[in-house]
Write a structure and sequence with these properties.
The chain is of the alpha/beta class. The protein has 3 domains: 236 residues, Aminohydrolase, N-terminal nucleophile (Ntn) domain (Glutamine Phosphoribosylpyrophosphate, subunit 1, domain 1, 4-Layer Sandwich); 194 residues, Glucose-6-phosphate isomerase like protein, domain 1 (Rossmann fold, 3-Layer(aba) Sandwich), CATH 3.40.50.10490; 150 residues, 3-Layer(aba) Sandwich (Rossmann fold), CATH 3.40.50.10490. Helices cover 37% and strands 22% of the residues. The protein has 19 helices and 25 strands. Strands 3-2-4-1-10-9-11-15 form an 8-stranded antiparallel beta sheet, with helices on one face. α7 runs antiparallel to α14 and α14 packs parallel to α19. The radius of gyration is 25 Å and the shape is elongated. Bound molecules: fructose -6-phosphate (F6R). The site of fructose -6-phosphate has 15 residues, from α9 and α16.
């Protein structure tokens, strides 16, 4: 979603701001802009990509202090006038903002009555006008007074011509300060500043920071607070393409390492607090798992894993639907999965769960993200930064976290437990074998790319994998795709099988095998082509399906990992075949910070 950057120091702000903005492109955006102060305040913005904005900038745009923004439209269409930064009536103040100001209409009407004029349709524009109204020489105080009038969520950076400082503030929207040498940066996300520093202050809700080239002072509710910089372990390379054509392909290929890293990390800690807590509490009640999108599909796989290994009832719900129903009890133990830790629906669900007295464990990939601040326990996944909008390695990392969490306290026969742990250790090699088969998968993808409708079917633990395969394909290739529990096809979707819509069937050698075989035959009887994912050694399915992709032998419990990697590659190469902008699909954002 929207991205914020800011720079103050000894160097020219312009190239640094543009570079930081380019690093935030993965969040998804429709317009961008920068403001640079150096003698006077210059604002340049448009509904274009960062590269195009760079071309539009005047040759002389000098100044050692500036802010920038990538916007993902919520209030007002993507346009030059609605792009950030936004300014006040004097042309001296510039503001960039992430989040939503709920009372902006009332504030706007009040400000108009007081003589302010507005040019955009955004909620953000009230902020510079409020700062202007309250400014009496002290920018920090003016910002604090403006924030006090606002209801909603925000991360903001404020720049005022003639002031050698930037003001940053946050509430329910992430914001960090990158600590450099004689220079400091502001960003909504760590990858933006990695080219300049690996020392970062994570601002907390209601923090207001005054940033100069020499230092940072943070206040909360008027009191100075000590926010210590933390060292980020992600490298610039982690956040770059590393020779791959797209971030998505790089991230798909990182999965063996992600699995290895998880195993290594967990080998040296016998149990995390979260594991203990879950194993102690679930005996009495149920586990409720909540998430959105791909993370929800990981949660659905988690349901099968936890039910099999813990022998307790597990319920999954979409975090975005949880507000409208969903019972909890004093014995509900909640697990919320969110790669970004910033998904608004997930945060809302956590707040509700906590208010109802349910302990919440968050599985997330982003250190100090908003979800980590409001959860009881945090389990970090070992995926590293995921830049591509389409989630791939974070899904695998989430599954790994769930496998480890449940294996440690598994209520199963010891021999079975040992054999699962051994299998898990072999999983990186198995995933590597899928990746080695990339060319074959790409050939199948070229066939899939010719169609406008594709169905994915699976049963049991591979039903969520069918959903994930369909989601991946539709979001990056724009091919209409639906995932179904294989047994459900004949309850309606059969009407669409006209020989033109291929069906991708995920077949694991578990207790669903025979039923899957029957379903494939049913599809074939309706003349639809079937591409089946089968385990090596299986010769039966190949006789029924039109074509097969062979996956390495794994315990069925781990089949959602290898099968999902195949489907990620299938989606990737289908999208490539169709010439789609794979890393930044239209209308999508990496971090969905609105409900
Ligand atoms: C799909 C995808 C999304 C996210 C969803 C939740 O490829 O990336 O469906 O999975 O927006 O995001 P997080 O996990 O950050 O809460």
């Amino acid at each position: 979603m929207c991205g914020i950057v800011g720079y103050i120091g000894e160097r020219q702000a312009r190239p640094i701001l543009l570079n930081c903005l380019a690093r935030l492109e993965y969040r998804g955006y429709d317009s961008c802009g920068i403001a640079v102060a150096g003698g006077n305040l210059q604002v340049h913005k448009d509904a274009v990509r960062v590269e195009a904005l760079k071309e539009q900038l005047p040759r002389r745009l000098e100044g050692k202090i500036g802010i920038g923004h990538t916007r993902w439209a919520t209030h007002g269409e993507p346009s030059k006038v609605n792009a950030h930064p936004h300014g006040d009536c004097t042309g001296k103040i510039a503001v960039v903002h992430n989040g939503v100001i709920h009372n902006y209409q009332q504030l706007r009407q009040k400000l108009i009555k007081e003589g302010h004029t507005f040019t955009s349709a955004t909620d953000t524009e009230v902020i510079p006008h409020l700062v202007e109204k309250h400014f009496d020489g002290d920018l920090e105080k003016a910002v604090a007074k403006a924030l006090a009038e606002m209801e909603g969520s925000y991360a903001i950076a404020v720049l005022m011509d003639g002031k050698a400082e930037l003001i940053a503030a946050r509430k329910d929207s992430p914001l960090i300060i990158g600590i450099g040498d004689g220079e400091n940066l502001i960003a909504s996300d760590v990858p933006a500043v990695l080219d300049y520093t690996s020392r970062v202050i994570y601002l907390e809700d209601d923090d207001i920071a005054v940033i100069t080239g020499e230092g940072v002072r943070v206040k909360k509710n008027g009191e100075t607070v000590d926010r210590k910089p933390q060292r980020v372990t992600w490298s610039v390379e982690d956040a770059q393409k590393g020779g791959y054509e797209h971030f998505m392909l790089k991230e798909i290929h990182e999965q063996p390492k992600v699995i290895r890293d998880t195993i290594r990390a967990n080998l040296y800690t016998d149990e995390t607090a979260a594991d203990r807590d879950i194993s102690e509490k679930v005996g009495a009640g149920e586990i409720l798992m909540l998430a959105c999108g791909t993370s929800y599909h990981a949660a659905m796989v988690g349901k099968y894993v936890l039910e099999q290994l813990f022998k307790v009832p597990v319920r999954t719900e979409l975090a975005s639907e949880f507000g409208y129903s969903g019972q909890t009890s004093s014995q509900t133990q909640a697990i919320v999965i969110t790669q970004s830790g910033e998904t608004a629906d997930a945060l809302k669900a956590i707040k509700r769960l906590r208010s109802e007295g349910c302990p919440v464990t968050v599985i997330t990939n982003v250190v100090s993200s908003s979800a980590t601040r409001i959860a009881d326990h945090v389990v970090y996944t070992m995926a590293g930064p995921e830049i591509s909008v389409a989630a791939t390695k974070s899904y695998t990392a989430q599954l790994m976290a769930l496998y480890w969490m449940s294996l440690f306290s598994a209520r199963i026969d010891l021999r079975r437990k040992d054999s699962l742990i051994m299998e898990l250790r072999q999983l990186p090699g198995k995933v590597q074998r899928v990746l080695d088969d990339e060319e074959t998968i790409a050939q199948h993808a070229a066939q899939i790319a010719k169609h406008d409708n594709v169905f994915f079917i699976g049963r049991g633990i591979n039903y969520p994998v069918a959903l994930e395969g369909a989601l991946k394909l539709k979001e990056i290739s724009y091919i209409h795709a639906e995932g179904y529990a294989a047994g459900e096809l004949k309850h309606g979707p059969f009407a669409l099988l006209n020989g033109k819509a291929p069906v991708v069937a995920i077949v694991a050698p578990d207790n669903n095998y025979e039923a899957m075989l029957t379903n494939i035959k049913e599809v074939k009887a309706r003349s639809s082509p079937v591409l089946a994912l089968v385990e090596e050694g299986d010769e039966v399915v190949a006789e029924v399906a039109d074509s097969v992709i062979v996956v390495p032998k794994v315990d069925p419990l781990f089949s959602p990992v290898v099968n999902a990697v195949v489907l990620q590659l299938l989606a990737y190469y289908a999208a490539k075949e169709r010439g789609c902008p794979i890393d930044f699909p239209r209308n999508l954002a990496k971090s969905v910070t609105v409900e």
